[in-house]
Amino acid sequence: SSGKVNHASNSKGISLPMTRVKLIMKSSPDVSSINQEALLLTTKATELFVQHLALSSFNNGSGKDQTLLYSDLANTVEEKETFQFLTDILPKKILVRDYLKLLEENPIEEADN
């Protein structure tokens, strides 16, 4: 195969599934209803954001075999201020022994609730 990913897209030039985006939007307790325009704009904005993150990560990455790696994404999220809000979602991978060593050096204190 050509390695191209084909998505059914509608006339608006959107390739993310709008039903999935709507489901994610509705998972917020602050959202009661979503009109078509809001759904379309949110879906397109999400698509453009993912494209921007992927391109930035690819250009910032190792460039091995023209492949985008998880580590490229995690490094971009850590290094570029624009993406730092994603550090919990795309953390750098570390070995368990290194994590345990970090915990020894910096014990996590119980937060008072």
Automatic annotation (TrEMBL):
Function: Forms a complex with DNA polymerase epsilon subunit POLE3 and binds naked DNA, which is then incorporated into chromatin, aided by the nucleosome remodeling activity of ISWI/SNF2H and ACF1. Does not enhance nucleosome sliding activity of the ACF-5 ISWI chromatin remodeling complex.
Residues spanning the signal sequence: none
InterPro entries, alphabetized: CBFA_NFYB_domain, Histone-fold, Transcr_DNA_Rep_Reg
Gene: CHRAC1
Chief location of this protein within or outside the cell: nucleus
Compartmental location: Nucleus
Subunit structure: Heterodimer with POLE3; binds to DNA. Component of the CHRAC ISWI chromatin remodeling complex at least composed of SMARCA5/SNF2H, BAZ1A/ACF1, CHRAC1 and POLE3; the complex preferentially binds DNA through the CHRAC1-POLE3 heterodimer and possesses ATP-dependent nucleosome-remodeling activity. Within the complex, the heterodimer with POLE3 interacts with SMARCA5/SNF2H; the interaction is direct and enhances nucleosome sliding activity by the SMARCA5/SNF2H and BAZ1A/ACF1 interaction. Within the complex, the heterodimer with POLE3 interacts with BAZ1A/ACF1; the interactions are direct.
GO-annotated cellular components: CHRAC
Keyword Electron transport carried by entry: no
Keywords, sorted A to Z: Acetylation, Coiled coil, DNA-binding, Nucleotidyltransferase, Nucleus, Phosphoprotein, Transferase
Protein name: Chromatin accessibility complex protein 1
Record flagged with keyword GTP-binding: no
Gene Ontology MF, one: protein heterodimerization activity
Native source species: Oncorhynchus tshawytscha
Domain Transcription factor CBF/NF-Y/archaeal histone stretches: 15-54
A single BP term in Gene Ontology: DNA-templated DNA replication
